[in-house]
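Per reviewer request, we include the raw input and output of the structure prediction for the construct analysed in the revised manuscript.
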Amino acid sequence: MAIELTDSNFDELVLKSDKPFVVDCWAEWCGPCRLVGPLVEEIGEEYKDKALVGKVDVDSNPGIASRFGIRNIPTILYFRNGEIADKQVGAVPKANLVSKLEALL
């Protein structure tokens, strides 16, 4: 299950993580986000020992969206050692998301 990220817990959970962290930036009204969301959840289960996965509702947490320049959703951010290591914008197949994560492991 993906961790619910907010403006208040983001730095503590994501930037200080010792594991790679996949962050799904989404919104309730976003159709493509509903396609990607379950894929991100699956990746979270499959990689639970190697990486962490979280979701942030950009409408409820505008600080994160502003801070990382999220202008289109869904956007998947890949963090390693507190830095953005990669990013995916738009709905893509699960294999694309997994390959970006694999590159960080």
